[in-house]
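Board work, copied verbatim: Ubiquitin-like domain-containing protein
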Amino acid sequence: MESVVEEKMESMEDKEREHEESNPQVYDQQDQQHAPLNHKEFVEQFQDFLSELIVGDPLLQDLPSQVTVEEIRSQIALEHGQAMTVNVRRGDDKVLPIVVLQNATVADLKKAIRHYFHLNLNRDGDGDRHISWRYVWKRNWLYFNGQKLTEDKTLLKDYGIFNSSEVTFIKRLR
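↓ predict structure ↓
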């Protein structure tokens, strides 16, 4: 996977080099006009480049344009069979595709759910909203195939949860 990204970057650099060689006077003028990029400009240009790269790659095209390193690693782990997608159904019937390692525990799944929400809130511009996960887990269970996932240290596969399994939130009764 990493070699594919490197190959695409080299290909883009080669194309740019060829274009520069065919139009040298244009690039000399541009180089004189551009000051060094500040951090924000560099990040924006890099995000644009990364977005183009992701859209063009069949393995990465499912990722959002503002992808994080963790999301790329998760996607690579999925492709290599080291991770699985657990579909978590919320109370409003929205299904969340949560990626966890094959040997993940219930606690790992909860952490991945928290991370998923945090990323989506930041992408939607609601990053300043706070979710009390202690409250969420105090009021709700994760539920799979007739059983509550009560033990955080238990492996998901011990509950029978594998790739593409669907876990739901249910309210705890007082």
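The mean pLDDT is 82.
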